[in-house]
Amino acid sequence: MKAKRKPIRIKHKIREEKRREKCLAVAFAVVILVAVSGFLVNSRLNQTVGPAYEFKAAIVDHLSLTYPNQTFIETATNTLKQVGYSVDYYPGENVTVEFYRTLPTRGYGIIILRVHSAIAKDRGPPLALFTSELYSNARYIYEQLTDHLGCVHHIVGGQEQTYFGIFANFVKSRMNGRFGNTIIVMMGCNGLTYVDMAKAFTEKGAKLYIGWDNAVSASHTDSAITQLLQHFLIEKLTLSEAVQETLNEVGFDPVYNSQLIYHPLEVGDQTVDNIAGIKQ
Question: Same domain for 76 and 183?
Answer without folding.
Answer: yes
